[in-house]
Each structure stands twice: as structure tokens, then as C-alpha cells.
Amino acid sequence: SAVLSSYFLNEKLNIHGKLGCVLSILGSTVMVIHAPEEEEVTSLDEMERKLQDPVFVTFALLLTVVALVLIIVVAPKRGQTNILIYILICSFIGAFSVASVKGLGIAIKQMLERKPAYRHPLVYILVIILVLSISTQINYLNKALDVFNTSLVTPIYYVCFTTTVVTFSIILFKEWSSMELGDITGTLSGFCSIIIGIFLLHAFKNTDITWSQLMSTVAKEPSLP
């Protein structure tokens, strides 16, 4: 988005922004190379069994309870002063869209194969969860953007949401069970590179520093004897 804004909206990227874009692209590439192979789920019955896994149910209940506490108790008191409150609500509730979209994708695929997937009650449960999660996510994200600076909300939200979704997906689909240590290290390194890149891109967004200014500053420094 930063590159497109620079090209179409004539917004200038300083040296921090350019480095941030490069780091984000490199981090994304590393994550794709080392990404775990997703366990194939081909039917709603398989999806239902995964959703009933005790570990996943415990994690989902924990996320729900924490999100409700933030919404009911914490947000009315500290939502206007603490940037993490609204963002954590978006991240925790938004993570449920992962399972919903995956399940609905399977249902659509089965219906295209002329299978009566619409008769499965899981389809309607997933639709309700998807609507609730997306609407809640949009609502609290807009609240965060209304109160806090976009340059702060965007990177923090990206990190929190991505971390929650990745954890959610790992527990639900057990994607990392077959990964080697090198792939795990590469995935985490790529994710950290993206975080650093986004931080550079947004934290120094209003800093007016160019490459020529940086080089001239270096040239003016006195040489050591």
C-alpha cells in the first residue's frame, strides 16, 4: 500500500519507508518459502472434527472470554487511552474468521460438486461466526482509527492480528507438526523482518530524510586520526 500510495497519490517515501518496504517484502518471501504445508481438509465432517478438538476448543474459549472481558469491562474505561484495547479485540475476534472462511470454502466446493453441503448445520454456524467476527472487527478497528493515529494503529494491528491468526491456524490445522527446525526458524525470522519493516515504514513516516541528506551527513563527519 505504501508503494502504491507513493506511485498513484504522489506520497513521498523517505529512506526509512523504502527500507521498511524492502524488509517487509523480504520477510514475506522468507515466510512463503518456509511456510508449513496446510493439512488438507476435504469435507465438512473433517472440519467439524477439527473444530471439536479439545485443544482448539480450549483456545477458542480462552480467546472468547478474553475478548468479552475487553469489550464489556476494559474498553469502556481504557479504550480511549490505551491503543492496545481496541486492537486486541479486533485481533482476537477476527481470528475466528479463519476457521469460518476455511469451512465455508469447503462447503462451496462440495456444493459445486453437487453435494448437499447446505444441509450440514456447520455451514450456518460458520456463517454466523463469520458475520459476527467481521462486524466486530470492523467496528473496533474504526474506533481505534478514530481515536489514535493511523501510523500507530496499522503496524500494531498487523502484528497482533497476524500473530493471533497464525496461532489460531496452527492449533486448528496443526500445520507445524511436520515442520523442521530450519523451516520454523525461517518462518519466525521472516515474520520478525515484516514487523521491523512495518515499524520503520510507519514510525518514521513524517521524518523528512533522504538518501542524499544521509550521505552528506556522513561525508561531513570528521575522520578519525
Automatic annotation (TrEMBL):
Main location (coarse class): membrane
From which domain of life does this come? Eukaryota
**Cellular component GO terms held in the UniProt record:** membrane
Reply yes or no: does the keyword Transmembrane apply: yes
GO MF annotation terms = magnesium ion transmembrane transporter activity
For this protein, the record's InterPro entries field holds: Mg_trans_NIPA
- Which stretches are transmembrane? 15-35, 55-75, 81-101, 122-140, 152-173, 185-204
Q: How does it sit in the membrane?
A: Multi-pass membrane protein
> Which sequence ranges form a coiled-coil region, renumbered to this chain?
none
Where is it located? Membrane
Q: Which UniProt keywords apply?
A: Membrane, Transmembrane, Transmembrane helix
Q: Family, per the entry? A: Belongs to the NIPA family.
This chain belongs to which protein, by name? Answer: NIPA3 protein
What gene is behind this protein?
Answer: Nipal1_1
